[in-house]
Amino acid sequence: MATIGLFYGSSLGNTETVAEKIRDLLEGHSVEMHDIAAVTKDSFAEYDYLILGIPTWDYGQIQSDWGEFWQELGTVDFSGKLVALFGLGDQFGYADYFLDAMGMLHDVVIEQGGAVVGYWPIKGYEFEESKALTEDGKEFVGLAIDEDQQPELTDERVEAWVAQIEDEFDF
Ligand SMILES: Cc1cc2nc3c(=O)[nH]c(=O)nc-3n(C[C@H](O)[C@H](O)[C@H](O)COP(=O)(O)O)c2cc1C
After folding, report:
1. Nearest-CA neighbor of 129 among 101, 157, 102, 91?
2. Candidate of 7, 18, 33, 56 to mutate for ligand 1, largest count of ligand atoms within 8 Å of Cβ
3. Whose CA is nearest to atom 28 of ligand 1?
């Protein structure tokens, strides 16, 4: 059985709640949850499979606990690891910055040698700009959750994405 490290930062609890839903759906796997506010770079070393959750705050900024860890994050060796990302944002309130932080986190993981799975179609979302898009603009670089505008879609999105990453993680 593979052990998955699930790292998240959350200012008001939404990302933490989604992290718990993901953990609960990954029954049959061992999932260890880590609040990014309480980790070091060594915390990542023991996992071949990672799930990283980040909300965007303050017009395209990374969430504050991720922000405090950001410099150290740039020294984490993600090579040989499969990484799935999920991001929370508000597509109407911050339409020009939707999920930007997930895009910035994706860039760091790629720069540090990680392989990313769990890309997610943009269909069903309305926004102007996002730094969390793939090059062709057809997908987000991870699961997109909007608890502000589309909370009724969260459960079905999380369920579909967890099934997808279970497949893509290829345990
Ligand atoms: C002051 C403020 C700024 C925000 N800025 C953005 C933003 O730039 N882009 C975005 O997609 N969402 C933005 N959001 C929405 C949050 O990402 C969203 O509410 C998220 O669910 C919060 O997650 P958390 O409770 O885990 O911190 C903002 C929310 C607030 C209150």
Report:
1. 91
2. 56
3. 57
Mean local confidence (pLDDT), 64-86: 98
For the segment 116-132, what is each residue's pLDDT rounded down to a tens digit? Answer: 999 999 999 999 999 99
What digits encode the pLDDT tens for the residues 134-163? 999 999 999 999 999 999 999 999 999 999
- What are the distances in angstroms from CA 145 to CA 14, 37, 115? 10, 21, 22
Q: How far apart are CA 69 and CA 72, in angstroms?
A: 6
Q: Is the pLDDT of residue 36 over 70?
A: yes
Q: CB–CB of 55/9 below 8 Å?
A: yes
Ligand 1 midpoint to CA 58 (Å): 7
Binned at pLDDT 50, 70 and 90, residue 1 comes out as low
Distance CA 46, CA 25 (A): 22
Sort strands 139-140 and 120-121 into parallel, antiparallel or unpaired: antiparallel
Single-letter amino acid code for the residue at 144? A
How many beta carbons lie within 10 A of that of residue 159, not counting itself?
13
| CATH number for the domain formed by residue range(s) 3-169 | 3.40.50.360
